[in-house]
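Troubleshooting log. The previous structure file for this entry was overwritten by mistake, so regenerating from the original sequence record. Sequence copied from the archived sheet and checked twice against the printout by T.R.
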Amino acid sequence: MNATSTRVNFISGRVIVAITIILALFSMLMVLTTDGLWLNQLIFLGVSFFMMFIFSKISYRTLSRLAPLGLLVAFILLISTLLFGTDNSRSLTLFGINLQTFYIIGFLVVFYIAKNLAGHINKEETLTNQQIVTLFGIIAVFCGGVFLANQSTAIILFTTCMVIMFIGKVKIKYLALFTGILVLGATILIVAGGGRTQTLINRFTLWSTGEVEGVSEDYAKQVILSKAAITNSGWLPGSVGQGVVKVALPARDNDYVFSVLVEELGVLLGIFVLLLYLALLFQAMRIARNAEGAFGTLLAFGIGFWFCAQALIHIAVNVSLIPSTGQTLPFISRGGVALVISGSAIGMLLNIGKSIPDNKQIL
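Regenerated output below.
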């Protein structure tokens, strides 16, 4: 490996690892100052970093052979979650463990789309209309299924797939047409009252007008108290662990952990956390631009975009820029499956970076 390639591995790989470690430290601090389930979170973070290490050692090209099987697993999980899921059909309970399956489903779909497009690009083949329709159909099935239970995750998944297809040189007219069809379908579903439409309408009403009718007491409290927590913060860290608003804030270690972080650590550290996610996206894009082969490029872009989109939506909800969506903050919110999947995805991203050819002109 020459000096230039080594430099890319050192900068991008080490920066990504450093970012995830810093986010994990924030996570432990938030758990210690909220519900005290530090051992539980430490175990999940340990598993996440273990998976990161494992997947950083396994060639992503070897794993690509499992893409069709992964898509089948995603479909089985989607149907099982919608039919037998708990928490409003968002998770499955297996052996007493609550699995947030949409994180698994989303990543497996992104992985498959990246692999499928890369196969055509590497062969210098132009996608036929039938192949484009097939890919769009796969995306529609999974995004539509997820949308029934979790609209924000479906939107993130759809947008990530569109980004991958755009980078994969699918014509913009096809992307625009497909987007229009799905938006029309979602609109019809909402007008017809399907899925969790009424919940979506109630949340939007609360966000836009402050009307709490139709939403649960806990939901109304967390929307109001999250704004109060940020308003109560200063620019610099205050009384860490002694936040006033967080005591009454539901979901303070998950959906609204950013509000607690800002209340106790200050606005400047909140901005710093935001910049960490943007830096992660930048390093993922850097790896993608220099990756060997189309699959590495598409997958790296997909991973980086997924993480950044999830973080930005979480932060936007916490500062009341958009209605509540239930998105967690990657590597900071307390959780199980989300952390494990996040660690695995970052491990793949690191492996793509390690696979940059020695003679690659670094961009």
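The chain has a mean pLDDT of 84. Archived copy saved in two places this time.
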